[in-house]
Amino acid sequence: MTQTAPINSAARISESVTGGQLKACDVVARTLSAIDQLDAEINCFTLVLRERAMNRAAALDCSLAAGASVGPLAGVPFAVKNLFDIAEHSTVAGSLINTEHPPASEDAVLIQRLEAAGAILVGALGMGEYAYDFTGENHHYGAVRNPWDTSRMSGGSSSGSGAALAARLVPLALGSDTNGSIRVPASLCGGFGLKPTYGALPRTGSFPFCDSLDHLGPMANCAVDLALSFDAMQGWDAGDRACVNRAPVATLPELHKGIDGLRLAVAGGYFDCASFPAAERAVATVSAALGVEQALQLEGAAEGRAAAYLITNAEGGALHRERLQRRLIDFDPDTRDRFIAGNLLPAGWYQRAQAVRARWRQQMAEVFGQVDIIVAPATPCVAPYLGAQTLRINGKDEALRPNLGLFTQPFSAIGLPVCSVPLADPDSGLPIGVQLVAAPWREDLCLRVAAFLESSGVTLASSPELGEV
Amino acid sequence: MAKPPEDSPSWPGDEELEQFARLIGVPLPEEHRDGVRVHLEAALAMAKLVYAVPLPDDELAPAPVFAASLEPPE
């Protein structure tokens, strides 16, 4: 591993482009060149927008030369999970079937907002089919490989987003998270990921999975870049009925405030990591750095996770019913059987799951009367090898796929904001993440603690060795 | 407190499951039946967990809220 800070952080690029030390055209050209050289090994890009990106960079350089203000993400290249609409391209969502969809008429709202802040879209990234995945494997397009060890999983379903960041191909990516799909690849690939509060960022112009649980959010290599991009994307939009019409609160000015005065606790009970040594070490490291002494049982987590499982299966299955009827053999075998099963669940189970979800929300609301941030593991393990099917839990082999989201699913079930921060696991030399969970609408607190851990040298500060670019 | 679905600890046999799938209108080809069954059993385990939660029996379960107007809330 090379011991370097993230040299291509969005904040640094923007500062250099705005200050005239870098041209946006050069940044984008270098990004495209890096993709050309490294993506064959990682398999994370499914679309590269050369002409569009270079044209936009040239326009941005012209604006800057004319003295115009171009925004806080000036010249920052970014890429998006391929469930985001990109004008003139079909929104694939990791599937074969959607390649036949007509091209999108315009960019997703979050792409528009990032570009309005000066960022430059360079392409679309691979993902698990229809976002029903925690592994990064995809029957149609091949696995997105983990840049730390290409024989290992990148995590999913925002697999391309996690891998592109780890390979330092882009400093900023967008993902989606229904049950952990930002936080799982962030953990396995060693990135920072922010799953905002449910309803905070509009999903307008993205291909859905499960309306009750779908979130969109940024992934990056440092907390500042998460804050910069989250602030640029905040705000209500009429295209998403779940989006809450609430005044944006800037998180960037809060980052330097440290952890003084924050009430911190570690998640116990359901989140106990005795079976998972790498996760246990990571949580212990973060807890020690934050001086956390209080452990909370978080009663209701297992049932909240079960509720999320059923809601996802039922809503996801319903979304794809007609496609299952018409195009069964064109599904990825790993998602097809789950979508069929989701259609067969009794309606009462779904309704019960919604009620239990609401109860879990109430239980956590009471917890947040006592604490500001909860520390929890992000994944039970470091990146498994590609093709792995099982995970050892309490001495028993359990199915790997659903259990990679064992610790993320309870929090997205009730829409809490979570920042996943990466650590280096000393035993394996691979990354593993820790979740920082806050009360609804307190992304600022998650990011503050993430920034503190970063400035304290606790988080991963190295990148995988890849070819010279 | 509602009882968990202990009376039906497993999904019905293949023939019944196929009839059910026809009723719902989803395909259930023989070659996918075992794969689907794995996920149905996983869902049943989750259903048992959510039914084991004590919930009051005199409250409406919070459904996704339907708004009569297409206009955004103020």
Using brief descriptors, characterize the structure shown.
heterodimer, A: 469 residues, alpha+beta, eleven-stranded mixed sheet, 15 helices, globular, B: 74 residues, mainly alpha, extended
**Main sheet attributes: strand count, strand direction, barrel closure of chain A:** 11 strands, mixed
Q: Report the mean per-residue pLDDT of chain B as an integer.
A: 82
Shape of chain A: globular
Low-confidence stretches of chain B: none
Structure description:
In chain A, α5 runs parallel beside α6 (183-189), α9 packs across α11 and α9 (301-319) packs across α12. Chain A is α+β, with helices and mostly antiparallel strands and 469 residues long. Chain A is globular and about 60 Å long. In chain A, the strands form four sheets. In chain A, strands 2-4-3-7-9-8-15-16-12-10-11 form an eleven-stranded mixed beta sheet, sandwiched between helices. In chain A, strands 1-17 form a two-stranded antiparallel ribbon. A two-stranded antiparallel sheet of chain A has the order 5-6. In chain A, β10, α8 and β11 form a beta-alpha-beta unit. Chain A contains 15 helices and 17 strands. Chain B contains two helices and no strands. The mean pLDDT of chain B is 82. In chain B, 45% of the residues lie in helices and 0% in strands. Chain B has 74 residues and is mostly helical. The termini of chain B are far apart. Chain B has helices at 14-24, 30-51. Chain A binds chain B through residues 211-212, 236, 238, 241, 245, 300, 302-303, 306-307, 309-310, 313, 317, 321, 324-325, 328, 333, 336-338, 340-346, 349, 351-356, 358-359, 399, 402, and chain B through 2, 17, 20-21, 24-29, 32, 35-36, 38-40, 42-43, 45-47, 49-53, 55, 61-64, 67, 72-74.
